[in-house]
Amino acid sequence: MREAWSGKWALVTGASAGIGVALAEELASGGTNLVLTARRKDRLEALAERLTSTYKIRTQVVPADLADPRAPEGIYAFTRENGIEVDLLINNAGFGKYGEFPFADKQRLLEMVQVNCAAVVHLTHLYLREMTARRRGDILILASTASFQAVPYISTYAATKAFDLLFAEGLAEEMKPYGIRVCALCPGSTQSEFHAVAGQETFIHRAESAQKVARTGLRALAGGKSYVISGLGNYLGAHGERLVPRRLVTRTAARLFKPKDKNRAC
Ligand SMILES: NC(=O)C1=CN([C@@H]2O[C@H](COP(=O)(O)OP(=O)(O)OC[C@H]3O[C@@H](n4cnc5c(N)ncnc54)[C@H](OP(=O)(O)O)[C@@H]3O)[C@@H](O)[C@H]2O)C=CC1
Ligand SMILES: N[C@@H](C=O)C(=O)O
Protein backbone atom coordinates (compact mmCIF):
# COMPACT_ATOMS: atom_id res chain seq x y z
CA MET A 1 0.00 0.00 0.00
CA ARG A 2 2.69 2.52 0.99
CA GLU A 3 4.14 2.19 -2.56
CA ALA A 4 0.79 3.11 -4.18
CA TRP A 5 2.02 6.66 -4.82
CA SER A 6 5.71 5.87 -5.35
CA GLY A 7 7.45 8.50 -7.49
CA LYS A 8 4.33 10.72 -7.46
CA TRP A 9 3.69 13.93 -5.53
CA ALA A 10 1.38 14.16 -2.52
CA LEU A 11 0.28 17.41 -0.86
CA VAL A 12 -0.31 17.02 2.89
CA THR A 13 -1.98 19.82 4.85
CA GLY A 14 -1.42 19.96 8.61
CA ALA A 15 1.96 18.27 8.16
CA SER A 16 3.59 19.91 11.20
CA ALA A 17 2.06 17.61 13.85
CA GLY A 18 0.12 14.47 14.70
CA ILE A 19 -1.64 12.55 11.95
CA GLY A 20 -0.20 14.80 9.23
CA VAL A 21 3.38 13.90 10.22
CA ALA A 22 2.43 10.20 10.31
CA LEU A 23 0.83 10.40 6.85
CA ALA A 24 3.91 12.16 5.48
CA GLU A 25 6.25 9.56 7.00
CA GLU A 26 4.16 6.66 5.70
CA LEU A 27 4.08 8.08 2.18
CA ALA A 28 7.77 8.99 2.22
CA SER A 29 8.69 5.44 3.25
CA GLY A 30 6.89 4.26 0.09
CA GLY A 31 8.82 6.67 -2.14
CA THR A 32 6.20 9.44 -2.51
CA ASN A 33 7.46 12.99 -3.03
CA LEU A 34 5.86 15.48 -0.66
CA VAL A 35 4.58 19.04 -0.54
CA LEU A 36 4.15 19.82 3.15
CA THR A 37 2.03 22.68 4.44
CA ALA A 38 0.95 24.08 7.83
CA ARG A 39 1.69 27.33 9.70
CA ARG A 40 4.79 26.21 11.63
CA LYS A 41 7.56 26.53 9.04
CA ASP A 42 10.35 25.33 11.33
CA ARG A 43 8.60 22.01 11.93
CA LEU A 44 7.83 21.53 8.24
CA GLU A 45 11.45 22.19 7.31
CA ALA A 46 12.77 19.80 9.95
CA LEU A 47 10.36 17.07 8.76
CA ALA A 48 11.20 17.68 5.10
CA GLU A 49 14.92 17.44 5.84
CA ARG A 50 14.51 14.21 7.80
CA LEU A 51 12.26 12.52 5.22
CA THR A 52 14.46 13.60 2.31
CA SER A 53 17.61 12.19 3.85
CA THR A 54 15.99 9.01 5.20
CA TYR A 55 13.89 7.99 2.19
CA LYS A 56 15.64 9.80 -0.71
CA ILE A 57 12.41 11.47 -1.81
CA ARG A 58 11.85 15.07 -2.97
CA THR A 59 10.10 17.53 -0.66
CA GLN A 60 8.79 21.08 -0.80
CA VAL A 61 7.57 23.20 2.10
CA VAL A 62 4.80 25.84 1.77
CA PRO A 63 3.94 27.59 5.04
CA ALA A 64 0.30 28.75 4.96
CA ASP A 65 -2.49 29.67 7.34
CA LEU A 66 -5.66 27.97 6.09
CA ALA A 67 -7.78 30.28 8.24
CA ASP A 68 -6.93 32.85 5.57
CA PRO A 69 -9.38 32.27 2.67
CA ARG A 70 -6.61 33.16 0.18
CA ALA A 71 -4.27 30.40 1.39
CA PRO A 72 -5.51 27.57 -0.90
CA GLU A 73 -4.86 29.71 -4.01
CA GLY A 74 -1.36 30.44 -2.68
CA ILE A 75 -0.59 26.76 -2.15
CA TYR A 76 -1.97 25.88 -5.58
CA ALA A 77 0.07 28.64 -7.24
CA PHE A 78 3.19 27.34 -5.50
CA THR A 79 2.76 23.82 -6.87
CA ARG A 80 2.04 25.10 -10.39
CA GLU A 81 5.03 27.46 -10.37
CA ASN A 82 7.25 24.57 -9.31
CA GLY A 83 5.87 22.26 -12.01
CA ILE A 84 4.46 19.83 -9.43
CA GLU A 85 1.57 17.59 -10.48
CA VAL A 86 -0.22 16.66 -7.27
CA ASP A 87 -1.54 13.08 -7.60
CA LEU A 88 -2.60 12.75 -3.98
CA LEU A 89 -4.21 15.58 -1.99
CA ILE A 90 -4.55 15.01 1.74
CA ASN A 91 -6.86 17.49 3.48
CA ASN A 92 -5.69 16.77 7.02
CA ALA A 93 -5.30 20.19 8.71
CA GLY A 94 -7.97 20.82 11.30
CA PHE A 95 -8.71 21.64 14.90
CA GLY A 96 -11.47 21.66 17.51
CA LYS A 97 -12.50 23.89 20.40
CA TYR A 98 -13.97 22.35 23.52
CA GLY A 99 -16.41 24.21 25.79
CA GLU A 100 -19.87 25.73 26.00
CA PHE A 101 -20.64 27.30 22.64
CA PRO A 102 -21.80 30.81 23.71
CA PHE A 103 -18.62 31.38 25.70
CA ALA A 104 -16.12 30.14 23.10
CA ASP A 105 -14.12 32.71 21.15
CA LYS A 106 -16.28 33.54 18.10
CA GLN A 107 -13.31 34.23 15.85
CA ARG A 108 -11.79 30.85 16.69
CA LEU A 109 -15.07 29.08 15.84
CA LEU A 110 -15.30 30.85 12.49
CA GLU A 111 -11.67 29.99 11.75
CA MET A 112 -12.50 26.37 12.52
CA VAL A 113 -15.22 26.35 9.88
CA GLN A 114 -12.79 27.99 7.44
CA VAL A 115 -9.94 25.51 8.08
CA ASN A 116 -12.00 22.33 8.55
CA CYS A 117 -14.55 22.95 5.76
CA ALA A 118 -14.02 25.93 3.41
CA ALA A 119 -10.30 25.31 2.87
CA VAL A 120 -11.03 21.62 2.22
CA VAL A 121 -13.59 22.52 -0.46
CA HIS A 122 -11.28 25.16 -1.95
CA LEU A 123 -8.16 22.96 -2.18
CA THR A 124 -10.17 20.00 -3.42
CA HIS A 125 -11.75 22.11 -6.16
CA LEU A 126 -8.40 23.50 -7.30
CA TYR A 127 -6.70 20.11 -7.54
CA LEU A 128 -9.69 18.10 -8.78
CA ARG A 129 -9.90 20.25 -11.91
CA GLU A 130 -6.41 19.03 -12.88
CA MET A 131 -7.06 15.48 -11.75
CA THR A 132 -10.23 15.14 -13.84
CA ALA A 133 -8.32 16.43 -16.89
CA ARG A 134 -5.59 13.82 -16.29
CA ARG A 135 -8.19 11.19 -15.29
CA ARG A 136 -5.91 10.34 -12.41
CA GLY A 137 -5.67 11.36 -8.76
CA ASP A 138 -6.65 10.59 -5.20
CA ILE A 139 -8.01 12.63 -2.31
CA LEU A 140 -8.03 11.78 1.39
CA ILE A 141 -10.09 13.96 3.74
CA LEU A 142 -9.81 13.79 7.52
CA ALA A 143 -13.24 13.39 9.05
CA SER A 144 -13.73 11.79 12.48
CA THR A 145 -15.90 9.53 14.60
CA ALA A 146 -17.36 12.92 15.57
CA SER A 147 -18.82 12.99 12.02
CA PHE A 148 -21.49 10.43 12.90
CA GLN A 149 -23.47 12.28 15.57
CA ALA A 150 -23.73 15.63 17.31
CA VAL A 151 -21.19 16.13 20.09
CA PRO A 152 -22.35 18.74 22.63
CA TYR A 153 -19.60 20.98 24.04
CA ILE A 154 -17.59 20.52 20.84
CA SER A 155 -20.64 21.00 18.60
CA THR A 156 -19.08 23.20 15.93
CA TYR A 157 -16.17 20.81 15.48
CA ALA A 158 -18.45 17.76 15.17
CA ALA A 159 -20.54 19.62 12.59
CA THR A 160 -17.43 20.46 10.53
CA LYS A 161 -16.43 16.81 10.58
CA ALA A 162 -19.93 15.69 9.52
CA PHE A 163 -19.48 18.07 6.58
CA ASP A 164 -16.10 16.53 5.73
CA LEU A 165 -17.51 12.99 5.76
CA LEU A 166 -20.51 13.79 3.55
CA PHE A 167 -18.40 15.92 1.20
CA ALA A 168 -15.91 13.08 0.72
CA GLU A 169 -18.57 10.40 0.29
CA GLY A 170 -20.44 12.46 -2.30
CA LEU A 171 -17.28 13.23 -4.27
CA ALA A 172 -16.15 9.60 -4.12
CA GLU A 173 -19.24 8.61 -6.09
CA GLU A 174 -19.11 11.64 -8.41
CA MET A 175 -15.47 11.11 -9.33
CA LYS A 176 -15.66 7.38 -10.13
CA PRO A 177 -16.14 7.94 -13.88
CA TYR A 178 -12.85 9.87 -13.89
CA GLY A 179 -10.92 7.11 -12.15
CA ILE A 180 -10.34 9.38 -9.14
CA ARG A 181 -10.59 7.92 -5.63
CA VAL A 182 -11.86 9.99 -2.69
CA CYS A 183 -11.96 8.70 0.87
CA ALA A 184 -12.89 10.11 4.29
CA LEU A 185 -10.65 8.91 7.10
CA CYS A 186 -12.59 8.81 10.40
CA PRO A 187 -10.35 8.34 13.42
CA GLY A 188 -11.50 8.23 17.01
CA SER A 189 -9.25 9.64 19.73
CA THR A 190 -5.71 9.69 18.33
CA GLN A 191 -2.37 10.61 19.91
CA SER A 192 -1.54 14.08 18.58
CA GLU A 193 -1.70 17.71 19.66
CA PHE A 194 -5.44 17.80 18.87
CA HIS A 195 -6.80 17.57 22.42
CA ALA A 196 -4.33 20.09 23.84
CA VAL A 197 -5.19 22.55 21.05
CA ALA A 198 -8.93 21.97 21.63
CA GLY A 199 -8.54 22.37 25.40
CA GLN A 200 -9.98 18.87 25.85
CA GLU A 201 -7.26 17.03 27.71
CA THR A 202 -9.58 14.76 29.68
CA PHE A 203 -10.54 12.60 26.69
CA ILE A 204 -7.20 11.21 25.58
CA HIS A 205 -7.59 7.72 27.07
CA ARG A 206 -7.65 4.78 24.65
CA ALA A 207 -6.16 6.90 21.90
CA GLU A 208 -4.78 5.15 18.80
CA SER A 209 -1.36 6.02 17.45
CA ALA A 210 -1.20 8.52 14.61
CA GLN A 211 0.83 5.99 12.62
CA LYS A 212 -1.93 3.37 12.82
CA VAL A 213 -4.54 5.91 11.77
CA ALA A 214 -2.41 7.11 8.84
CA ARG A 215 -1.89 3.55 7.58
CA THR A 216 -5.60 2.78 7.87
CA GLY A 217 -6.50 5.86 5.82
CA LEU A 218 -3.99 5.28 3.04
CA ARG A 219 -4.91 1.59 2.79
CA ALA A 220 -8.62 2.46 2.50
CA LEU A 221 -7.97 5.13 -0.15
CA ALA A 222 -5.79 2.78 -2.20
CA GLY A 223 -8.48 0.11 -1.83
CA GLY A 224 -11.17 2.41 -3.26
CA LYS A 225 -13.21 2.85 -0.07
CA SER A 226 -15.26 6.05 0.26
CA TYR A 227 -14.76 6.18 4.04
CA VAL A 228 -13.01 4.27 6.77
CA ILE A 229 -13.33 4.31 10.55
CA SER A 230 -10.07 3.55 12.30
CA GLY A 231 -10.36 0.95 15.07
CA LEU A 232 -12.94 -1.78 15.59
CA GLY A 233 -14.40 -0.18 18.74
CA ASN A 234 -14.83 3.12 16.90
CA TYR A 235 -16.45 1.30 13.96
CA LEU A 236 -18.93 -0.51 16.21
CA GLY A 237 -19.70 2.69 18.10
CA ALA A 238 -20.33 4.78 14.97
CA HIS A 239 -22.58 2.18 13.38
CA GLY A 240 -24.15 0.77 16.56
CA GLU A 241 -25.56 4.14 17.56
CA ARG A 242 -27.67 4.20 14.38
CA LEU A 243 -29.94 1.68 16.11
CA VAL A 244 -30.54 4.10 18.99
CA PRO A 245 -32.83 7.21 18.77
CA ARG A 246 -30.75 10.24 17.75
CA ARG A 247 -31.97 12.25 20.78
CA LEU A 248 -30.63 9.59 23.11
CA VAL A 249 -27.27 9.47 21.33
CA THR A 250 -26.90 13.24 21.64
CA ARG A 251 -27.93 13.17 25.30
CA THR A 252 -25.38 10.46 26.07
CA ALA A 253 -22.66 12.40 24.25
CA ALA A 254 -23.60 15.48 26.30
CA ARG A 255 -23.19 13.51 29.53
CA LEU A 256 -19.77 12.25 28.42
CA PHE A 257 -18.51 15.61 27.21
CA LYS A 258 -20.01 18.01 29.77
CA PRO A 259 -17.12 20.00 31.25
CA LYS A 260 -16.43 18.90 34.84
CA ASP A 261 -14.93 22.24 35.72
CA LYS A 262 -17.00 25.26 34.65
CA ASN A 263 -13.83 27.33 34.39
CA ARG A 264 -12.48 24.97 31.72
CA ALA A 265 -15.59 25.24 29.60
CA CYS A 266 -14.17 27.59 27.00
N1 LIG B 1 -6.45 13.53 17.19
C1 LIG B 1 -7.71 13.08 17.17
O1 LIG B 1 -8.21 12.52 18.16
C2 LIG B 1 -8.51 13.21 15.91
C3 LIG B 1 -8.17 14.07 14.87
N2 LIG B 1 -8.95 14.14 13.75
C4 LIG B 1 -8.62 15.04 12.65
O2 LIG B 1 -7.31 14.78 12.20
C5 LIG B 1 -6.76 15.95 11.60
C6 LIG B 1 -5.35 16.14 12.12
O3 LIG B 1 -5.42 16.40 13.51
P1 LIG B 1 -4.33 15.91 14.55
O4 LIG B 1 -3.11 15.47 13.86
O5 LIG B 1 -4.98 14.99 15.49
O6 LIG B 1 -4.09 17.29 15.33
P2 LIG B 1 -2.76 18.15 15.56
O7 LIG B 1 -3.21 19.31 16.38
O8 LIG B 1 -1.68 17.28 16.08
O9 LIG B 1 -2.37 18.64 14.09
C7 LIG B 1 -3.18 19.56 13.41
C8 LIG B 1 -2.48 20.05 12.17
O10 LIG B 1 -3.32 21.00 11.50
C9 LIG B 1 -2.59 22.18 11.26
N3 LIG B 1 -3.41 23.37 11.34
C10 LIG B 1 -4.21 23.75 12.35
N4 LIG B 1 -4.71 24.98 12.12
C11 LIG B 1 -4.21 25.36 10.91
C12 LIG B 1 -4.31 26.54 10.12
N5 LIG B 1 -5.03 27.61 10.53
N6 LIG B 1 -3.66 26.61 8.94
C13 LIG B 1 -2.91 25.56 8.52
N7 LIG B 1 -2.75 24.43 9.22
C14 LIG B 1 -3.39 24.34 10.40
C15 LIG B 1 -1.51 22.20 12.36
O11 LIG B 1 -0.37 22.93 11.92
P3 LIG B 1 0.09 24.38 12.43
O12 LIG B 1 -0.40 24.54 13.84
O13 LIG B 1 1.58 24.34 12.29
O14 LIG B 1 -0.55 25.31 11.46
C16 LIG B 1 -1.17 20.73 12.47
O15 LIG B 1 -0.20 20.38 11.52
C17 LIG B 1 -7.74 17.08 11.92
O16 LIG B 1 -8.51 17.37 10.78
C18 LIG B 1 -8.62 16.51 13.02
O17 LIG B 1 -9.91 17.05 13.00
C19 LIG B 1 -10.06 13.35 13.60
C20 LIG B 1 -10.42 12.50 14.59
C21 LIG B 1 -9.69 12.35 15.81
N1 LIG C 1 -13.02 11.81 17.34
C1 LIG C 1 -12.17 12.69 17.97
C2 LIG C 1 -11.85 13.93 17.36
O1 LIG C 1 -12.17 14.18 16.23
C3 LIG C 1 -11.90 12.45 19.40
O2 LIG C 1 -12.30 11.37 19.83
O3 LIG C 1 -11.32 13.28 20.07
Task: Characterize the structure shown.
Helix 5 (155-174) links the parallel strand 5 and strand 6 (180-186). Helix 3 runs parallel beside helix 4 and helix 4 (106-134) packs parallel to helix 5 (155-174). The protein starts with 8 loop residues before the first strand and ends in a 9-residue tail after the last helix. It has 9 helices and 7 strands; from the N terminus they run βαβαβαβαβαβααβαα. A 7-stranded parallel β-sheet has the order 3-2-1-4-5-6-7, sandwiched between helices. It has a single domain (2-263), classed as NAD(P)-binding Rossmann-like Domain (Rossmann fold, 3-Layer(aba) Sandwich). It has 266 residues and is α/β, with parallel strands linked by helices. Bound molecules: NADPH dihydro-nicotinamide-adenine-dinucleotide phosphate and the ligand N[C@@H](C=O)C(=O)O. The site of ligand LPIYNW4C has 6 residues, from loops.
